[in-house]
Design brief:
317 residues; single chain; Rossmann fold; alpha+beta; seven-stranded antiparallel beta sheet
Length: 317
């Protein structure tokens, strides 16, 4: 865990001794995570402050004002929280103030010791950027799985995003140990059925699939077991129709990641893809919502503009 924390600080966040480093976590795992990060920072002679807050109720819920103020005063912010802070106003404000921000949604102490943290982030950048560039050039995506997923998405004139796990520039935001390429589809375009059989950012690993039926970019029906009921309840709780819109399509590109229940690793698993609901403004989309929920599924077959692009863990360029 200490080795993973040192790699996070030195290689991913590229921290320097004179910088102010802030780690934000919550009471689910914050005490253990804070101790590990403090010990790693001490070994690197880095100035690190840790904040532990109450867990947010859903991905994208804003943190307290005191946390926002600390984020804006920091050079590096590491959000090791249960729910993602990537889509919050707080994250945007911190990056505008010049902070480099790393999201580790669903982080646990064991995540720092996972194989996913051992990947050579610098070496994988070439693949991540190449997949993102192919998404940028494409106009349409067709995704199918043997489990029954069959989706059509329009991605015309949208730019692919490369999540490389290396956060070097002021104002930049990355995920760790996430490696993925993703894109925001045209908001009214997604049509078809999605069978989520791996995990979600609000349920962890799934025991039974969640089935979503999508029309004109909006989820119209959710069926399945207890996990489907939880997903539906959270979407209803935010009381915003934009929360039901398809926000993102992405593919995992970390060859050492494994499905574990932490969304920041689950969505990075090579051989998976994910769809997200809710906010997509940070990805270049037009849908503003108070929530962003990732839905991960296994073994996708992806076509770009009618040509096979991805089959399981294999890409065709």
């Amino acid at each position: 865990m200490i080795t993973g924390a040192r790699k996070l600080l030195s290689e991913c966040a590229q921290t320097r001794r004179h910088e102010k480093i802030l780690v934000i976590s919550d009471t689910n795992y914050g005490y253990e995570l804070s101790e590990i990060m403090m010990r790693a920072a001490s070994q690197l002679n880095i100035n690190l402050t840790a904040i532990i807050m109450k867990p947010r109720l859903f991905p994208g819920e804003e943190p307290p004002a005191s946390v926002v103020a600390a984020m804006k005063l920091s050079n590096v912010v590491i959000c090791a929280t249960t729910m993602t802070m990537f889509y919050t106003k707080a994250r945007i404000a911190a990056c505008r103030a010049g902070a480099r921000l790393i999201s580790m949604a669903g982080a646990t102490p064991s995540l720092l010791a996972s194989n996913a943290m051992l990947v050579n982030f610098k070496e994988q950048q070439k693949l991540v950027k190449k997949v993102a560039a192919n998404l940028t050039r494409a106009s349409s995506v067709h995704v199918t799985t043997k489990q029954g997923t069959d989706l059509m998405l329009n991605i015309s004139n949208r730019n692919g995003c490369a999540i490389t796990g290396i956060c070097a520039k002021p104002g930049e935001a990355q995920g760790v140990p996430d490696l993925e390429a993703c894109i925001a589809p045209i908001e009214s375009s997604t049509m078809g059925k999605l069978i989520v059989d791996a995990s979600t950012s609000v349920t962890g690993l799934l025991r039974s699939p969640i089935i979503l039926e999508i029309q004109d970019g909006t989820v119209v029906r959710i069926t399945g077991g207890a996990a489907a009921n939880r997903l539906r309840a959270i979407l209803r709780r935010v009381q915003d129709r934009n929360a039901w819109k398809v926000a993102e399509f992405g593919v995992g590109l970390n060859p050492l990641a494994r499905l574990c229940g932490s969304i920041i690793e689950d969505e990075a698993v090579l051989g998976t893809a994910h769809l997200a609901l809710g906010d997509n403004k940070p990805l270049g989309g037009n849908n503003k919502a108070p929530i962003h929920i990732d839905l991960v599924f296994k073994q996708p077959r992806v076509e770009l503009d009618g040509a096979l692009f991805m089959q399981g863990r294999r890409f065709i360029f």
